[in-house]
Amino acid sequence: MGNEASTAISPFSAEDAQSLQSQYKSSQKDCFLTAMERYSVRSYDSTRPLPEDVIKQINDYISQEDVCTGPFGTKVKLSLLERSKVGGSLGTFKIISGTDVFLVAIIGESADLLEVGYVFEKVILHLTTLGLGTCFMTGTFSGSDFTKGAGCSPTEKVYAISPVGYAKTPEHQVIFEKRLATNHRRLAFSEFCTVDPTVTERPLNLIKALEAARFSPSALNKQPTRIYVTKAAPTEGSDNTEYCVSFAEKSTKPECGVDVGISLLHFMQVIEELTGTKGELSKTQPSITIPSGFTFRVSWKGSLSSQVQQSTDQPPASDSE
Ligand SMILES: Cc1cc2nc3c(=O)[nH]c(=O)nc-3n(C[C@H](O)[C@H](O)[C@H](O)COP(=O)(O)O)c2cc1C
């Protein structure tokens, strides 16, 4: 990735970056700020165990049907496990210290990993908003110990875990600032994302959603996701420009997709919060060329005009922005 500090970096204008900085410091965090400040926490503060009310809040959240359901309908079982339920050393190989609580994702044999990534990351970002540290993990833990501890049926297994707790040395703000100012441990924007020349405007909503996707986590930080932005064919009766955002993966294995699901979640959460609409997803490849060695996974189509009402005291606005 070269000399990150000196390369052309963020697609935000200097004014946008400054405004985002001050929002981060002053206000309640929105989805974009949350996605940009999340990082993998491996050392937790053992003197600050999770309070019962926080555990209850998490359990209430992960038991909601819409939280556990992926964008194409796959259900993922989510559970909070205490160390004592798992037993043994957990197989986290001393990588994780200072917490006894783990979020686990239980899946059936033919689960779509794109959806599993989407659902698990939704919870990870929710935990980030609660001030908690997390680390999405699919490798460095004992799958059999966790599968047993979670009481899985013979056709189920624990696919992913995340420790949950308060970071020993919280670095959210440092990470946020680095991500806003540099390509902090990520591909350059131009390598991650290709914008078709017919897309002449670059609305801030779109840039924020793409940035949230670029800084999403991936296994071994391999960053296999690539995004292609084109204009969508106009919808009859609509004056709004619609965009098509296609997600591909640097892999030809059909069973992959977890990292793309995570990037998709980051993109969609920011878009939904900023525009008030979810857009439409499709697994049919639009007419775009994907380079060899990459596989098309999913595309999002929608308008980027904001339908979000600014204030509840005002009558509904008749026009979108
Ligand atoms: C699907 C997935 C699997 C991962 N598995 C592991 C793991 O087994 N062990 C680990 O320590 N970190 C794991 N990570 C964390 C990544 O190493 C980390 O997200 C990446 O290096 C980017 O760093 P960041 O999360 O701090 O932005 C995983 C992340 C993802 C998304």
UniProtKB/TrEMBL annotation:
Q: From the record, give the transmembrane residue ranges.
A: none
Mind telling me which Gene3D superfamilies this protein's record contains?
A: NADH Oxidase, putative nitroreductase (tm1586), domain 2
List the InterPro entries hit by this protein, alphabetically: Nitroreductase-like, Nitroreductase/BluB, TM1586_NiRdase
Q: Please verify whether the record's keywords include Transferase.
A: no
Q: Which residues form the Putative nitroreductase TM1586 domain?
A: 37-269
* Signal peptide limits: none
Tell me the keywords, alphabetical order. Flavoprotein, FMN, Oxidoreductase
Source domain of life is Eukaryota
Q: Which family does it belong to?
A: Belongs to the nitroreductase family.
Question: How is this protein named in the record?
Answer: Nitroreductase family protein
